[in-house]
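Q: My collaborator sent me two sequences in one message, no labels, and asked for predicted structures for both. Can we handle them in order? The first one she listed is below.
A: Yes, handling them in the order given. First sequence, followed by its structure tokens:
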Amino acid sequence: MVEPVARIRLYKPSEEDDKLVRFVLGKAYMGLLAEANQRAYFHPLMIASWVAMSCIFIQVMHWWPDYDAFGWLSFLKPLPAFASMAVPFMFFIDWRNRPAFEKLTQNTLRKPDIFDIASYYSRSPASGLWILEYGQSFVGLIAVDASPDSTSEITISADTTCEFTSGTSAVATIRHFHVEEKYRKSGVQDDLLEHALRRTFESAEQVQKVRIVYCPLATYIGECLRKYGFRTVEHTSVSGVSFEECALDRSAWEKKSI
């Protein structure tokens, strides 16, 4: 039996790769929505509110344990109250968080690079979109934009016509960085980031810095960035969701690569 082989390959201008990239980027923020919801579930204030409302419900329904009448089984009596009260809290948290992450997803899919991936990332030799695969399975992707528009955050609609110039900027931007959840514990995101940084810095001397704006809810990205010497530049908020801008200078990269 032939063992699957891991490989990092350059994006191919094909319908299959186009669908894959758009699908992955479309679901990436939904994964962060689940993380945001989970953190909210275990917030001390939320837990205290849930317990308080459950106790009120138990009091109204007279579901407190009665050991003398039912023995140890009576301690199961309040459980339905706790379970039923958890549902509206979970619904409220998702209802509150979902619009922001859906808007972020829409904005990502309306970026100029998504409309014509091949043309956009071919304007500079230091740009590229790389896909990590394990056998036939998709593992992750990373996209680096080193074009003159590398720091632009505009969004466009389907009927918008954009003209972009070729060339290489002094500042490159990691526009997309995603690894499937089941592969993150293996640390493959480190290999993907290292590959992209090497290709970017070694392909063009003009590139003096690589930056990324990411959501700290993606903790695996933050850990990966710190390993390679990225420093925090700024904390921002988009649609109520926290983001962090980090940057890596060429000198720091070259020092680490020696």
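Q: And the one she listed second?
A: Here it is, processed independently of the first:
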Amino acid sequence: MKICFLIPDGVGIRNYLYSDLLLILHQRGHEVVIWHALDQKVIELASKINRFTPHQATFTSYPEDFIIQLLRESTSYARLKHNQQITENPTIMLNWHEKKGSFKRKALIWFSEKIGKRIKGYQSLVATEGIYFARLRKTEAYQKYKSQLKEINPDVLFCTHQRYPGAAYALAAGEDLGVTTMTAIFSWDNLPKARLPIRAKFYTVWSNHMAEELKFYYPELKENQVLITGTPQFDFYKNEDSIISREDFAAQFGLDASKHWVCFSGCDSKTSPYDSDYLEDVANALKGQKDIQLIFRQVPVETVDRYQNVLNRHPEIIHLNPMWNKGTYWNQFFPYPEDIDHLVNLSYHCATVVNIGSTMALDFSWFDSPGLYLNYDHKEGQEWTVKDIYQFQHFRSMGNWDAVVWANSSSEILKKIRLIIDQPESVAKDRKLWLDKIIEPDLQVTASEKLAEAIISAKKAG
């Protein structure tokens, strides 16, 4: 069987090229093709990890006409309105675009809102999406992808990221050629955000919780189209060979092995525009704590620039830069394999991770370390507020569980960190329950193995 992985941007690299998935399929006698627009260095790194070089095809992005963009964004807006209504959660609309950028971009957002508001009822929404998919099938991009797929001739076409609009053309072409199409819902917070511009025969999700969410937001999908496989990004935490001793990790990164390590994990500038202020709050809170060392790791796709003044004022902060290649375009950003082990060891050796609502709380929970969420604003009446962040739909998955530790003011930070260090069993008592719900970790079978089996089975079923 020939399996083509469409990796249109750097998001799919860690989970699919650096995990065991490709190797498992290769060892089972299947032919693997990577259809991508990535730096060739990534393929070389992946080939070294997997001990074989997959076949390759170049994925080219094409300009979209205004009408197709308008149809996609209008239905996205309508879905957000629909999702807001069925969840009774107004923060869902915060996922809509900001009116920034060029005049054409602003016009697109303005018209999309106007049209999206006029789409009434779920059936009308699905019908409008049908118009969008019909129109993209008339484009040159669709024809070129169709021609390319005829040359590749895959049995299965698996798109590694469901949010990339250009992939919609390729999967539509694959479907029309009789190829079994699949895509992965990349993250646990994606589904309420109405960012599913592609359609596939099968969808892979992390857990039963995500499967129920997918069927809730997209009720037109059939039960057998949703496959629970887990996510390979947590497979790396199962690999005990990745973990080095505390002393070796400290020596490698200039840390003091005798101290408790607290990791401040940065968020992107849209999620947390005041992130540098929060880092300074944590640094000030820990000032003079001789047995604690503060580590800072920014979000990999952003620079350290907005934190630099804080780092200059607090030389005691150990800045550990993510081991990523940075580029001008999204497909030029990618992690080096070393960054995976780096993140695993941070999660294993640090006492806690501090941030504004980051998924990193789940990463640290894997090793039973409580996460600390900062839950206060810096200025009264500021437009961005943590009240919105923690009302996001994906946080409702916590229910009434005591899943993370909360610092409701800067004055609480030291007390909460001390509690985590001194009495970790007394806080965030339900952190493992939350982790199990979102990820459903299986210590016997990896997500890569489940994904491989799902891909093989999907071809038989499709």
